[in-house]
Amino acid sequence: MVKSNGNLESHFQIPKIKFTQLFINGEFVDSVSGNTFETIDPRNEEVIARIAEGDKADIDLAVKAAREAFDNGPWPRLSPMERRNIMLKFADLIIENAEEIAALDAMDAGKLFAAGKTIDVPSAAQFMRYYAGAADKIHGTTLKMSRDIQGYTLLEPIGVVGHIIPWNFPTQMFVMKVGPALAAGCTMVVKPAEQTPLSALYYAQLAKQAGVPDGVINVVTGFGSTAGAALCSHMDVDKISFTGSTEVGRLVMQAAALSNLKPVSLELGGKSPFIVFDDVDVDKVAPLAMIGILYNKGEVCVAGSRLFIQEGIYDKFVKKLVEITKTWVVGDTFDPNSHQGPQVDKKQFERVLSYIEHGKREGATLLTGGNALDRKGYFVEPTIFTDVEDHMTIAKEEIFGPVLSVMKFKTVEEVIKRANCTQYGLAAGVMTNNLNIANTVSRSIRAGVIWINCYFAFDPDCPYGGYKSSGFERDLGMEGLHKYLQVKSVATPIYNSPWL
Q1: Catalytic residues (predicted)?
Q2: Who contacts 414 (Cβ-Cβ below 8 Å, separation ≥6)?
Q3: What is the pLDDT of residue 352?
Q4: What is the pTM of this model?
Q5: Which of 53, 267, 299, 398 is catalytic?
Q6: Minimal CA–CA distance to 409: which of 268, 286, 310?
Q7: Residue 5 pLDDT > 80, yes or no?
Q8: What is the spatial distance between Cα 437 and Cα 465, in angstroms, rounded to a whole number?
Q9: 323-362: b or e for each residue (b if 16 or more CB lie within 10 Å)?
Q10: What is the pLDDT of residue 85?
C-alpha cells in the first residue's frame, strides 16, 4: 500500500459552498428552529460548512409544499413529453456542472474527485436521461375480460414520495430516486444523509433552473432520528424509498406501518460473495476482486467482501492480491494518483477499525493492512484476512470498508451453500469460463444481482435490489419507475358487442 501526498488544493480550485439552507417550495430557507450542524471533510477532519438542521417542523412544511404541488400543481398534469424535456434539461445541467458536483462529494464523502467527475456524475446524468425517455412510455393494459365488460388499467403517479438517500453515493442515489419519481409525475421530499448534504442541495437548485416547478423537489437536510423519522411517519406522504442499513430499514418500515400504511421500498445492506473458480485467468480476475472490495474505500452496498477462491488456484490468487495492495495508493481525494480516499466520517472510520480487531481476535490471519494511516483524516489501509471461517464476525456482518475476507472452497455445491449462508442477498460475482457452472451458480445464489465475469456492472436498464435482509423492490430499470406508480383498473359494461 502506497501513501500519497497530502492535500492538493493547489492543483484544483475548491469551489465555494453556495447552498447550506433547506430547499422548500422552490426556495432556500433556514430551518424553523434556526439550528445548524457541521458537515466535516474526512480528508482533514475540518468543518466544510454549517448546514441547516431540519426536523419535524421543516418536514411538515416540505410535505405541505409537495402535497400542494401534487394535488393542484402543474407537474403531474404536464404532458409526459413536457416532463421529459424538463428532465433532459436537468441532465444537461448535471453534466455542465460535473466538476463542481464531483468536488462537493469529494469534500463531503471522501470520494475520489477524478472518479466523481468521470463516473458518478456522468452516470447520474445518464440515469436522468433514461427516465426522461421513459416518461412518455407509461402505459396501462387493455384487459380481455371473461364477460360483457370492457376493462383496462391506468398507471397513475403514487403521489408524494419521501426519499431517504445514503452517504456513500450521494450523487448517483439522488438521481436514482428522484429521476423515476419525476418521470412518473410524483412530487417529493428528499432527506440526504447528514454526512453528505452538499450535492443534494446543489441538485435542488439545478432542478429549479431546469424548469421543475416549485414544490416538486424539496430537500430537507438533518438527522435520521428527527427529519428522517418525521418523513417516514408523515400521514401525507404516500411512499417512502430508502437506501441504507438493514437496521434503519426496519425502523422505516415500522414508522410507515404505524402511520398511514404507506408502501416502502428498501435497498439495504449486503455481504456479497465474489466466487472464483480455478479455470480463470488469475492475472485478470484478481484485480477485479480487489476493485470489488476497495472501490469507493469499500463503502459500497454490493462490495464483494467475501472472496471464495477454489483450492486449485488459491495460493497463486492470494499472492496476486498482496501484490496489488502494494501498489494501491491511499490518499487525498483530489490527488489524481489516489486509488482510495478516507472513510466518510469518524464513526465509520472507527467501525472499520473495530471489525479489523474482531478479525484478529477470532483467529483470522491478517495478511495485509489492518491499520489507520498516520495522518489527519479517516484513512484505513486496504486490509486482507485469510483463514476466515463462515461463523466469524468479519464474514457475517457488513463492514462497509476496505476489508476483505478470503476463504477457500473445493466444490460447486459447497460454495453455493456457503455463499447463501448469510442474512443478506444483494449481489454476487461468479468468475468462471465454464458456462454450466456459471448458469448453475447464478441461479442458485439468492441475491438480486449476479455478475458473471464482471463486477459493478450497473446500467440504467438493469434493475438493482436485494433478497432477504437486503431489502425489496428495485431501483433502476423500468421496475425502478413502476414503484412510483399505482395501478388502477377500470371496468364498464358493453352491450350488444360482436366481440368480448
Answers
A1: 267
A2: none
A3: 98
A4: 0.96
A5: 267
A6: 310
A7: no
A8: 24
A9: ebbeebebbbbbbeebbbbbbbbeebbeebbebbebbeee
A10: 98
Confidence category of residue 294, pLDDT binned at 50, 70, 90: very high
Pairing mode, strands 27-29 and 187-191 = unpaired
Residue 276 CA to its chain's centroid (Å): 26
- What confidence score (pLDDT) does residue 4 get? 65
CA distances from 267 to 351, 371, 405, 477, 488 (A): 21, 30, 23, 15, 26
Residues 69, 65: Cα–Cα separation, whole Å: 6
**Intra-chain end-to-end CA distance of the chain, in Å:** 71
Residue 2 has a pLDDT of 72
Supply the Cα-derived Rg of the chain in whole angstroms.
24
Q: Which of 383, 395, 412, 363 is nearest to 297 (CA)?
A: 383
pLDDT at 13: 79
User: pLDDT tens digit string along 23-44?
Assistant: 999 999 999 999 999 999 999 9
Question: Domain 271-464, what fold?
Answer: Aldehyde Dehydrogenase; Chain A, domain 2 (3.40.309)
Cell of 206: 439545478
Clarify whether 267 is annotated catalytic. Answer: yes
Chain segment 467-487, per-residue pLDDT in tens: 999 999 999 999 999 999 999
Q: How confident is the model at residue 139 (pLDDT cuts 50, 70, 90)?
A: very high
Report strand pairing: 273-276 vs 306-310: parallel
Q: Is the Cβ–Cβ distance between 278 and 433 less than 8 Å?
A: no
- Enclosing H/E stretch for 472: strand 471-472
Domains of the chain, by residue range, sit at 20-267+470-485, 271-464
Continuous segment of H or E residues that includes residue 187: strand 187-191
Residue 12 in this model has a pLDDT that exceeds 70: no
Residue type, 127: F
User: What band does 9 get if pLDDT is binned at 50, 70 and 90?
Assistant: very low
Torsion of CA 322, 325, 326, 331, to 10 degrees: -170
Q: What is the average pLDDT across 129-143?
A: 97
- Residue 184 grid coordinates: 412518473
3-state DSSP call for residue 376?
A: coil
Residue from 273, 376, 375, 286 nearest 325 by CA: 286
CATH of 20-267+470-485, one of 3.30.70.2740, 3.40.50.300, 3.40.605.10, 1.10.8.60: 3.40.605.10
Query: CA-to-CA distance for 383 and 221, rounded, in angstroms?
Result: 34
Q: How many Cβ atoms from other residues are within 10 Å of residue 95's Cβ?
A: 15
The C-alpha atoms of residue 208 and residue 204 are separated, in whole angstroms, by: 7
| Position 111 confidence tier, pLDDT thresholds 50, 70, 90 | very high
Q: Which three cell numbers stand for residue 28?
A: 432556500
Specify whether the CB–CB gap between 318 and 417 falls below 8 A: no
pLDDT reading at 376 higher than 90: yes
Which phi and psi (to 5°) does residue 231 adopt? -65, -45
Q: Which residue has the cell 430547499?
A: 23
